[in-house]
Amino acid sequence: MADHWTLENMPDQTGKVVIVTGATHGLGYEVAKGFAAKNATLILAVRNMTLGQERIAEFCQINPNGRFEVMSLQLDDLTSVRQFAEEFQRKYQRLDILVNNAGIMAVPFGKTKDGFEMHIGVNYLGHFALTGLLLPLIKQTPGARVIAVASEAEKYGNIESLLADFDYEKRYERWMAYGHSKLAQLMFAYELNRRFQQHGYQAQAMGAHPGFARTNLRVSVMPTERNLFHRYLNAFFELISQRQELGALPLLYAAAAPEAQGGEYYGVSRFQMWGYPAKNRSSRRSHDEQVAKRLWEKSEAVTGVRFAF
Ligand SMILES: NC(=O)c1ccc[n+]([C@@H]2O[C@H](COP(=O)([O-])OP(=O)(O)OC[C@H]3O[C@@H](n4cnc5c(N)ncnc54)[C@H](OP(=O)(O)O)[C@@H]3O)[C@@H](O)[C@H]2O)c1
Predict the structure, then answer these.
(1) Which protein residues touch ligand 1 with a CB less than 6 Å away?
(2) 298 C-alpha vs ligand 1 centroid, how far in Å?
């Protein structure tokens, strides 16, 4: 890996079909912009179609010859996920790169349309279902990649605890819920990669994280922070976080660098918080294959999406 891997190092993506979820703001927007500049056929999978169209107009300025499309995807609603996957498969015959990026962080307790706790529903189960429904295309596209946008918060996630109280009937703590969802996303990527290998597919799945990036994610937490300590902590995070353009680079690296490998975790070079893309180490828990299998079974059961390998 180059010491300072940037967009300059990213190969041209002509002919590749790329989906980025949550492409209207933050890291997803930057990742989409990178692919737009590199000539990919880019699908912005977004919850706000008007904003999605505005983003496409921006990308057309960057690359007038680019092929861009915006499609509606509400990750808190599995009906929307199914509709997205059906429509996508009607329109496209391949899927080279799926960047499972959209996310929420530390929101108050709430439920998705299907009755899942919001973090696990949006960050993890929505992407799990999306990937499973798009598997036929992923399988038939040589060298396809699935990227889980995880977080250092995976380190305080615990899937055993999650599985023991999946509906949060006993206790809800929003940062813990975020940690669980990010660990779940990462374990899903590792397990998916193992299953690709077991079935002899060329496809790869890997995790990526941006370090601390200045995006809307933390802003959305601020109004709910009544605790003074948390308020100072957030202000401090605001100061020490890096630009979202930089935070997006590890995601782009995982998605597009020829040397990136399935089953790896790509983050940033300095203390897993800042800097340019680097191979990072995820928690020991994230590599627990038994727990990953249990999580997978649970996820198939609750979403009704079975992966047809
Ligand atoms: N920023 C960081 O420091 C950091 C660190 C570690 C990991 N991450 C991860 O990076 C990913 C992107 O976050 P970000 O920092 O770029 O935050 P962001 O600026 O808030 O962007 C989040 C994106 O997700 C979309 N989204 C949220 N809920 C959705 C839903 N129900 N259905 C469809 N799309 C939805 C948002 O749509 P709208 O544009 O319509 O709001 C937005 O485009 C997240 O998975 C997050 O966990 C971020």
Answers:
(1) 22, 24-28, 47-48, 73-76, 101-105, 122-123, 149, 151, 209-210, 212-213, 215-217, 220
(2) 24
The separation between CA 300 and the C-alpha centre of its own chain, rounded to angstroms, equals: 19
Question: pTM surpassing 0.85?
Answer: yes
Is 172 in the active site?
A: no
| Beta pairing, strands 204-208 & 265-270 | parallel
pLDDT tens for 211-263 read 989 888 876 666 556 677 777 777 777 788 899 999 999 999 999 999 999 99
- Strand order from edge to edge, sheet including 67-72: 67-72, 41-46, 17-21, 97-100, 145-149, 204-208, 265-270, 274-279
Residue of 124, 178, 201, 265 with catalytic role: 178
Domains of the chain: 14-212+248-300 (3.40.50.720)
Q: Residue with the nearest Cα to atom 2 of ligand 1?
A: 213
